[in-house]
C-alpha cells in the first residue's frame, strides 16, 4: 500500500470522481408456460430499488418481475437493506443525511432517521435488531436500533470514505482454532484508505483493519460467513478491476480475482457456490466460482450496471405446484433505468424491468401473510 498511499491526496478528489463515474458510466420474465398469480397464503419476495435521481424506491414483485409500487423517500437514495423478517426496508438518502424506514406490508415510509453526512451503505444484523450505516463524509458508521428507529451509537472508522457495509450472515462468527461463537461482525469498505474495517457489533468498536485493493466498494459474505468478497473500484488513472477474498477467521486476503472494469457490486448465491460481480464500465456481470475463486462466466447486461442482489431464499416456487427453481440475480443498470434479471442456472438475462431514474442499489424482503394482514 506504500505506492498507492502516495497517490491518495489526489484520491480524495478521486472519491468524488468515482461517485460521479457511477452517475455517468452509467417485459415480462421468461418463466415457462405457467402464469403466476399471488397466493395470499404464502410469503412473497419483493425487491426494493433505490432510484437516486427520482428520490424514490421501486418495489418489484419477483413473481411477475414487475414494479408494483413506487415509494417517495429522501434526496438521492443510494443504499438499501431489509430486516431478516422482511418487515422493514432501510434506505440511505445521501443528500439529506437521513435514512428512510419503509413498512414493506404497506410500502410506506414510517420513519425518517437523521444520521451522518453523505450516508451510502446500510446493512442489518442477522437478528434484525440493528442497522449499520456508513457516513462517507464523516468517516464513521451510525448504529440504528430498529425497535426505536434511533441512532444509538457512532463508530469512527477513519477518514477513508466508508461506503459499503455487510454483516456476518448468521449473526455469529467462529474465531480461528475453535467452535466458540461470538457476536456478529460488520465489515466496512473504506475507499480512500484501501482497507476494510471490522466492527464487533457487541462492543461497536473496530477490532481489525484489512488491506485490500484500490478503492474498495462492495462487500458480501458467503452464507457460512467464512469468506467476504470485496470489489475494488481502482484509481482515477488505473482501474483495479479485482475482487479481494477475505478469510474471516483470520481477517486476511487469501485470493485476488481479476474482474471487469470498475467492479462495483457483489452478491453471493444462497448455496455459497458463486459470487456475482457487476462491472460498471464493461456492462457485464462476472460470475466467480467460490471454490476455485476464478471467473467462470461473464454475462452482458445494460450499460452502467452497478448494484446486484439475490432474493434471500434463493428459490421461487411456481404457483401451481410449488416446484422450485434456481435463484435469480437482479442487477441495477444506471444508464438504462432498468433492472436486469439473471437466471443463475443458465447465466442468461431472462427479464429486464423498467424502474426509476438512475437505479443504484437494491435489496429483497420476503413479506409473510401475517405481516401483510397485521398492517392492513
Largest sheet: 4 strands, antiparallel
Tally the helices.
3
Percent of residues in helices? under 10%
State the name of the first-level CATH class: Mainly Beta
The named CATH superfamily: YVTN repeat-like/Quinoprotein amine dehydrogenase
Radius of gyration: 19 Å
CATH T-level topology: Methylamine Dehydrogenase, Chain H
Please, what is the average pLDDT?
85
Low-confidence sequence ranges: 1-38, 317-321
Percent of sequence in beta strands = over 45%
* Number of individual domains: 1
Shape: globular
* Distance between the first and last residues' Cα: 54 Å
What is the strand and helix layout of this fold?
Elements: H1 2-6, H2 8-24, E1 44-51, E2 56-61, E3 66-72, E4 77-82, E5 88-93, E6 98-103, E7 108-114, E8 119-124, E9 130-135, E10 140-145, E11 150-156, E12 162-167, E13 185-190, E14 195-200, E15 205-211, E16 216-221, E17 227-232, E18 242-247, E19 252-258, E20 263-268, E21 274-279, E22 284-289, E23 294-300, E24 305-309, E25 328-333, E26 338-343, E27 348-354, E28 359-367, H3 369-374
Antiparallel strand pairs: 1-2, 1-28, 2-3, 4-5, 5-6, 6-7, 8-9, 9-10, 10-11, 12-13, 13-14, 14-15, 16-17, 17-18, 18-19, 20-21, 21-22, 22-23, 24-25, 25-26, 26-27
Amino acid at each position: 500500500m506504500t505506492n498507492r498511499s502516495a497517490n491518495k491526496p489526489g484520491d480524495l478528489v478521486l472519491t468524488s470522481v468515482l461517485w460521479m463515474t457511477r452517475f455517468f458510466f452509467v417485459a415480462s420474465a421468461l418463466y415457462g408456460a405457467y402464469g403466476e398469480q399471488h397466493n395470499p397464503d404464502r410469503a412473497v419476495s419483493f425487491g426494493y430499488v433505490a432510484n437516486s435521481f427520482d428520490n424514490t424506491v421501486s418495489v418489484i414483485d419477483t413473481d411477475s418481475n414487475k414494479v408494483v409500487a413506487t415509494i417517495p423517500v429522501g434526496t438521492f437514495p443510494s443504499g438499501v437493506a431489509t430486516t431478516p423478517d422482511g418487515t422493514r426496508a432501510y434506505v440511505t438518502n445521501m443528500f439529506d443525511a437521513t435514512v428512510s424506514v419503509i413498512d414493506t406490508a404497506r410500502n410506506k415510509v414510517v420513519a425518517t432517521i437523521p444520521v451522518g453526512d453523505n450516508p451510502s451503505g446500510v446493512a442489518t444484523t442477522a437478528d434484525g435488531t440493528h442497522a449499520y450505516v456508513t457516513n462517507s463524509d464523516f468517516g464513521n458508521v451510525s448504529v440504528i436500533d430498529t425497535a426505536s428507529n434511533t441512532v444509538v451509537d457512532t463508530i469512527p472508522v477513519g477518514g477513508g470514505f466508508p461506503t459499503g457495509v455487510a454483516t456476518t450472515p448468521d449473526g455469529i462468527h467462529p474465531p480461528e482454532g475453535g467452535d466458540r461463537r461470538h457476536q456478529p461482525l460488520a465489515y466496512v469498505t473504506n475507499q480512500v484508505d484501501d482497507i476494510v474495517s471490522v466492527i464487533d457489533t457487541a462492543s461497536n468498536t473496530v477490532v481489525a483493519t484489512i488491506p485490500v485493493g484500490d478503492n474498495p466498494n462492495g462487500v458480501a459474505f458467503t452464507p457460512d460467513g467464512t469468506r467476504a468478497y470485496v470489489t475494488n473500484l481502482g484509481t482515477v488513472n488505473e482501474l483495479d478491476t479485482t475482487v479481494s477474498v477475505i478469510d474471516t477467521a483470520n481477517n486476511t486476503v487469501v485470493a485476488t480475482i481479476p474482474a471487469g472494469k470498475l467492479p462495483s457490486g457483489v452478491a453471493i448465491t444462497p448455496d455459497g457456490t458463486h459470487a456475482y460481480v457487476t462491472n460498471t464500465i464493461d456492462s457485464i456481470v462476472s460470475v466467480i466460482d467460490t471454490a476455485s475463486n476464478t471467473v467462470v462466466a461473464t454475462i452482458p447486461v445494460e450499460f452502467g450496471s452497478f448494484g446486484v442482489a439475490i432474493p434471500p431464499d434463493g428459490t421461487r416456487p411456481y404457483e401451481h405446484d410449488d416446484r422450485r427453481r434456481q435463484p435469480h440475480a437482479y442487477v441495477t443498470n444506471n444508464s438504462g433505468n432498468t433492472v436486469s434479471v439473471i437466471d443463475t442456472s443458465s447465466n442468461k438475462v431472462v427479464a429486464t424491468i423498467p424502474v426509476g431514474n438512475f437505479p443504484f442499489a437494491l435489496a429483497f424482503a420476503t413479506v409473510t401473510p401475517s405481516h401483510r394482514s397485521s398492517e392492513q
